[in-house]
Amino acid sequence: MKRRVVIIMGFVLLLVLALHFYIKISEQNPQFSVTFFNIGQGDSALIKFNNGQKMLVDCGPDRKILAKLGSALPFYDRKIDYLLVTHPDLDHYGGCVDVLNQYAVQEIITNSSTKETDPYWKIWDAKEKQESAEIKIITNTQEWFIGSSTLYFLNPDNSLNLTAKDTEGNNASIVFKLTNAGESFLFTGDMEMPLEEALEQKYCSTTLPACPALKADVLKVGHHGSDSSSGEDFLRYVSPKEAVVSVGKNTFGHPSFRVLKKLQRIGAGILRTDELGDIIKQ
After folding, report:
1. Can you give the C-alpha Rg of the chain in angstroms?
2. What would the pLDDT profile of 233-261 be if each residue is shown by its tens digit?
3. What number does CATH give the domain 31-281?
């Protein structure tokens, strides 16, 4: 009996040691990547920085985000360094309460917008306040450095030429450009044409396509490919090699055939989550 106990304890010890070394080895050389999740009709992307930190940009509409994170992260990893909610539309923040329930979130980044008419908003607001995470509110342009990556926040920005109406809703989305090792990504939330035009006015030359601030290799297409976004000038200024459309089954007509044709005309490869599943860029 004692011998059996010793053997079992030895086996358990070996398993613990093996797990310890596995975790140490896997954490030694973290690689940069961006994964656009196939989350249904909604947005969610996971950025892994080469210093080991992680940023989740939006959470999709529901708890499906947990399965996505479970497949993208090791089973033992229950930490999200940054949870960024671009704006309070349910298809962007609906799964965030589940993320807070299952993961230790260090920082929550928002645009400070509220949606009191949405019953779920009260649940999210209460949960956010209960968390020990640091709350950061983007109210103006700023630059962050994480590992070898740079994030430049383009919106919200009080200096943009927007009407009061156009600073609310979708156009209050957090918009940022991410660069790493010469590759760039433009995250747009649900940005619509008034905000696109305001960014063009601030950052771009009158001569297309000269606009270093907006130019990006990968564009996360605004508002799921809606007709209200992706103006022709804006797409030419960004001039993406690839355009990611985060979309699922819907009754809104997303993505718009007109937007898809615009993307084809500028030579962008169109990557749709409803057709390709999770889209991973490394």
Report:
1. 21
2. 999 999 999 999 999 999 999 999 999 99
3. 3.60.15.10
